[in-house]
Amino acid sequence: MNNLLEYLEAAAERVPGKIAFSNGEDSLSFSEVYNNARAIGSTIYKKGYYRQPVVVYMHKHPDMVNAFFGVLYGGCAYVPMDEEVPGFRVRKIFETLKPSVVICDDNTRDKIDPSFFDGEVLYYDELIGNTADNEILEDIRKKSLDIDPAYIVFTSGSTGVPKGVAACHRSVIDYIETLSEVMGFSEDTVFGNQTPLYFDACLKEVYPTLKFGATTYLVPKQLFSFPVKLIEYLNEYRINTICWVVSAMTIVSGFGTFDTVKPEYLKTVAFGSEVFPARDLKIWRETLPEATFTNLYGPTEGTGMCCYYRVDRDFGPGEPIPIGGPFRNTEILLLKDDMTPAGEGEEGEIFVRGTSVTLGYYNDPERTAKSFIQNPLNDHFPEIIYRTGDMAKRNERGELIFLSRKDDQIKHMGHRIELGEIEAVALLSEGIMQVCCVFKKEKNKIFLYYTGNAEEAEIKAELKGRLPRYMQPHKVIRLDEMPYTPNGKIDRNELRERS
Which residues pair with 440 in a beta bridge? Predict the structure, then answer.
């Protein structure tokens, strides 16, 4: 298998009338996705766009997913972007890409600013009304390679400056095959997608849906503000598999949602992107004793997730949940600052080695060279690995334990501190639902933000009894709600910038 579209073609032949993608109101069958995508790809190619980035700037909807595959049929790489992306970020992305063409829908057709884009705007509804050209599509496929880029996903990382991660067909295929083995997806899988479609996290649902002829429901974003309605939505559409960011899951467990309604069909639960508090995991596991729970870890630059841990035991308060070990065909190197392997119990930075390593940052050779580096353990031939900036160590079981972002390791009062340790201790306090600890360099102070009904003074007093003086937050601040990034993670940059 060399091209992601082979998944779609097999599913369209095997289960043509089955729902592939839906939001509960609008749905697309596999045959509709197949025919629409071929029409889009034919038109894109005829207009002269080939082997270049095509921005898919649409409302989160099954049509947006369909447009991705249309771009692939045209022999191009899709760049997902939806109407929620802030204007400043849109401008920065366009400046990096310099695209010639954008696909829009009725929600976005008036949002393209001519001051930074003067290329062609194509409309999805018009594209799917065209006729597929089988001869052209066959010629495109003959010339395609598995190392051709499939998509470019923009991620802010820790700097806030968008970086376009380019991934090829081969790395995505490798990821989907190994992820599917780990998670046990099948034709009976019904996914409940939580993440925006302009992040790589949606790969976990989009391509396994094609591979198995499964079904994905795009869960409306507003439901994550109403946990009871969210679970009712899962039940209405018999959703049995979710792969959500941790903050989405803690919203459900933190508000006592399961006292009112429980997921009736949920059997497979994966979580990632942040540290899952042990107490919330316990609530989920007690509610769904027959379900499997898997902690997934991985950077966008490693084509999504590259490590997993199948939860097989209980964890005490504050005890970290492992990220486990690598997927098949992936190796995790744990290296110290001198680029030598970390020993037993030693901390090291996670480096990813294998097919899953992406092509680099689009039009950004400087940052690519800093993060995609020659394997320091191999001086015999060129071999690129990705340095994640994430710190970890192995426990007595040999499982990887995520410690913190390298950016979140600070030097304070002469001591090296990992902010995640402070967060873990704070979560031991009654009345805290979520917590985020940041270091404000200009003030040389540690700030701890939390949500819940506990009083600030109480939390500060408890932390004094549990933490050494150099780790105690200077300020403890209660929030009505945490700020979130578009993909559902706690927005640490926003908290750092607060006065």
Answer: 445
